[in-house]
Amino acid sequence: MELYTAQILLEKSQHETLTQIAQQESRSLSEIVREMIDRELRYRQRRQMIVAARELQADYDADPALTAFTAVDSDDFLVLG
């Protein structure tokens, strides 16, 4: 993992809380912040995927060609000797 230096401004209460968490967990403040950022980024990515899926749902409901092969999803169509 390649790390970059970034300067951010925190409210005093945010810094105090993050510092307390870091001390309780014997971890660095940077590690705590990176973990929280990762969690938020995953949440946002999942939310974008859900929105995209909802936007495409009408197409899947209206166009049978998009779901034609779902009927064979569980079929064992390849049987090896």
Structure, explained:
This protein has helices spanning 12-24, 29-62. It is mainly α and 81 residues long. It has a domain at 13-60. Helix 1 (12-24) crosses helix 2 (29-62). The longest helix is centred in the middle third of the chain and has 34 residues, at 29-62. The protein is elongated and about 55 Å long. It starts with 11 loop residues before the first helix and ends in a 19-residue tail after the last helix.
Distinctive features:
58% helix; elongated; 81 residues; 2 helices; single chain; mainly alpha
Give a topology summary:
Layout: H1 12-24, H2 29-62
Helix pairs in contact: 1-2
Structure, briefly:
With 81 residues, this protein is mostly helical.
Secondary-structure element pattern, one letter each: HH
Structural class: mainly alpha
Per DSSP, the total helix count is 2
Number of strands: 0
What share of residues is helical? 55-70%
Q: In angstroms, what separates the terminal alpha carbons?
A: 46 Å
Radius of gyration: 23 Å
Report low-confidence residues grouped into runs of 5 or more: none
Whole-number average pLDDT?
A: 88
Q: Tell me about the biggest sheet? A: none
Shape: elongated
Strand content: under 5%
